[in-house]
């Protein structure tokens, strides 16, 4: 096996994923720079147990009151301490070679570990004197991940780990409990879907949701089982409570805690409607685990700022690069737990990014290994979105006065493709009399960006992006196009064919003669630099973490605000004011052919 082998949690993966991950291992690829766990050479682990070293975890049973997240104390005692000692969290608790579920894994030496830990922390994290005393107490936050847990002490750093001691096993009172609800729009405005994770197979228990009656549905993949229920014929703007559950074979019920959401407004409803948009978040560890290589330093700030403001927005659109699990399937659970206060309360719509989908020879438009072999399977299963084909991550959705067309940049979007035809149909279907605010969203920048690497290419966009799509944006008078992928914020003037069509900076009114482009990729992952070249179409840039908020006050007034994740304050904004007749007005390449008869 190549020395550059990168450990991946294959025992937590679907057979489809395992095949792709093994292919990656054999290729010797090293491109997992977004995932801290990839720095652990777990295949190199050597069994070197020390008879006087110990790791003790407490309490033994978690979630006795139904909690899905608990803090655990880890007491470490090592007679031969060093600064590079570290503690790994494994789940399932048994992580030696006997847990390997595939035959062609080449085991290096005892203890033949074939699964990555789900997180880790250096032993001296909370005690600088550890190298002298050999004693330390760590506090780790553990979430319910459908299995038991153990904690292992390693010396030798991350590249040459030596296993010194293994702790007792701890577990949640009900490791199979229904968890982490994700709300999303169904295929009609009055339908809401609830997707959740559990350890119950359809054979063990029937998934149900308590919602004035039961709606059922299930789909699954390793790890655990994924269930989706469809709540239909909702009354607009009504607040509903719900809880997920499972009816066991003996007739008993297992329930989650109760949640609530507000049903969507009907299309065209003239009321206050507020939307959050961002991309490229990642996940953070509240206990400081994996902190030495924090790849997503803004993730928790963005999450917490949104949670604090949860009563002041109605809908979220995450435009790709969600968890950055990159093949470490346990990290999806961590991300779902992080986002649960938001995803359980408001519709959380998602788009596909390179870190969800891209993998060589898998059908993705880009032949990179950015997804770590996931090939879109976790994202397509863990989140519901109203696409006609789950493998084709493009769809439309409505929220009151907004009509969204969400593209999939990891599949071909060019003229003549299936996706291009869908996008034109989606844009054309907007009833601008009822839904005046037409929004295009995608992960990669198909429009304009002053990002450094785009500048080096000379395109200031994803190659072939706006060349194929700008006529659609112009023809159907798209108000704003949002993109992620570039980890910063930027607002571009209303533009068509590389020319600003409006000199205004903060208030736009009248006819729609160009689309405003916004990069909102500062959700939490490491920041991207701007080019040093002068991009005359760029109005505002911010090299920081943040998100965008759209507020539709009525059918003629829209506000866009850019807020920093650090304080939630507004650092850029503009308004659009216009009437329906302004949308109908002819502009260059945006005027329908007419005859005297019409």
TrEMBL record:
GO molecular function term, any single one: metal ion binding
Subunit structure: Homodimer.
EC number of the protein: 3.1.3.2
Cofactor(s) this protein requires: Fe cation; Zn(2+)
Organism of derivation: Artemisia annua
Protein's name in the database: Purple acid phosphatase
Sequence ranges assigned to domain Purple acid phosphatase C-terminal in this UniProt record: 514-573
The family this protein is said to belong to: Belongs to the metallophosphoesterase superfamily. Purple acid phosphatase family.
Pfam family, one: Metallophos_C
Domain Calcineurin-like phosphoesterase: 274-489
Top-tier EC class: hydrolase
Substrates-to-products reaction catalysed: a phosphate monoester + H2O = an alcohol + phosphate
The UniProt record lists the keyword Cytoplasm: no
Keyword field: Glycoprotein, Hydrolase, Signal, Zinc
Purple acid phosphatase Fn3-like domain segment(s): 55-174
Recorded superkingdom: Eukaryota
């Amino acid at each position: 096996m190549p020395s550059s082998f990168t450990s991946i949690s294959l025992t937590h993966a679907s057979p489809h994923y395992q095949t792709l991950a093994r292919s990656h291992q054999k290729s010797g690829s090293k491109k997992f720079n977004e995932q801290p766990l990839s720095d652990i050479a777990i295949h190199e682990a050597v069994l070197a147990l020390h008879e006087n070293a110990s790791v003790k975890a407490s309490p033994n049973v978690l979630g006795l009151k139904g909690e899905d997240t608990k803090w655990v104390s880890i007491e470490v005692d090592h007679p031969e301490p060093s600064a590079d000692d570290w503690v790994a969290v494994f789940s399932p608790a048994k992580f030696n070679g006997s847990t390997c579920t595939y035959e062609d894994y080449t085991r290096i030496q005892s203890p033949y570990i074939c699964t990555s830990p789900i997180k880790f922390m250096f032993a001296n994290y909370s005690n600088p004197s550890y190298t002298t005393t050999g004693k330390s107490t760590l506090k780790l936050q553990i979430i319910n991940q459908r299995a038991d847990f153990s904690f292992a002490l390693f010396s030798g750093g991350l590249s040459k780990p030596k296993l010194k001691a293994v702790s007792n096993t701890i577990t949640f009172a009900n490791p199979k409990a229904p968890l982490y609800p994700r709300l999303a729009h169904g295929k009609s405005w009055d339908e809401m879907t609830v997707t959740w994770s559990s350890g119950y197979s359809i054979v063990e228990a029937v998934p149900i949701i308590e919602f004035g009656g039961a709606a059922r549905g299930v789909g699954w993949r390793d790890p655990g089982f994924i269930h989706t229920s469809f709540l239909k014929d909702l009354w607009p703007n009504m607040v509903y409570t719900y809880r997920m559950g499972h009816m066991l074979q003996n007739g008993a019920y297992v329930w989650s805690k109760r949640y609530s959401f507000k049903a969507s407004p009907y299309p065209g409803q003239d009321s206050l409607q507020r939307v959050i948009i961002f991309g490229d978040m990642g996940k953070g560890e509240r206990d400081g685990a994996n902190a030495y290589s924090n790849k997503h330093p803004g993730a928790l700030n963005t999450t917490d700022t949104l949670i604090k403001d949860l009563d002041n927005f109605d809908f979220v659109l995450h435009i790709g690069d969600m968890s950055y699990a990159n093949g470490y399937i346990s990290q999806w659970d961590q991300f779902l737990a992080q986002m649960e206060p938001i995803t359980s309360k408001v519709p959380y719509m998602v788009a596909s990014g390179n870190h969800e989908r891209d993998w060589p020879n898998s059908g993705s438009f880009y032949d990179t290994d950015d997804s770590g072999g996931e090939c879109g399977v976790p994202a397509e299963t863990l989140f519901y979105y109203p696409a006609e084909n789950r493998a084709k991550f493009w769809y439309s959705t409505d929220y009151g006065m907004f009509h969204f067309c969400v593209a999939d940049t990891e599949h071909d979007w060019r003229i003549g493709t299936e996706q291009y035809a869908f996008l034109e149909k989606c844009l054309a279907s907007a009833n601008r009399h009822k839904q005046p605010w037409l929004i295009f969203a995608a992960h990669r920048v198909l429009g304009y960006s002053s990002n450094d690497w785009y500048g080096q290419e000379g395109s200031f966009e994803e190659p072939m992006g706006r060349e194929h799509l700008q006529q659609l944006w112009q023809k159907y008078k798209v108000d704003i196009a949002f993109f992620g992928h570039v980890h910063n914020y930027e607002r571009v003037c209303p533009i068509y064919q590389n020319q600003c069509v409006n000199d205004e900076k903060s208030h736009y009114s009248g006819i729609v003669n160009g689309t405003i482009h916004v990069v909102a990729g500062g959700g939490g992952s490491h920041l991207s630099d701007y080019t040093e070249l002068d991009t005359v179409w760029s109005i505002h840039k911010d090299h920081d973490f943040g998100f965008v908020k759209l507020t539709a006050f009525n059918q003629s007034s829209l506000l866009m605000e850019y807020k920093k994740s650090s304080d939630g304050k507004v650092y850029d904004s503009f308004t659009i004011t216009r009437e329906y007749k302004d949308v109908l007005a002819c502009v260059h390449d945006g005027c329908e052919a007419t005859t005297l008869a019409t």
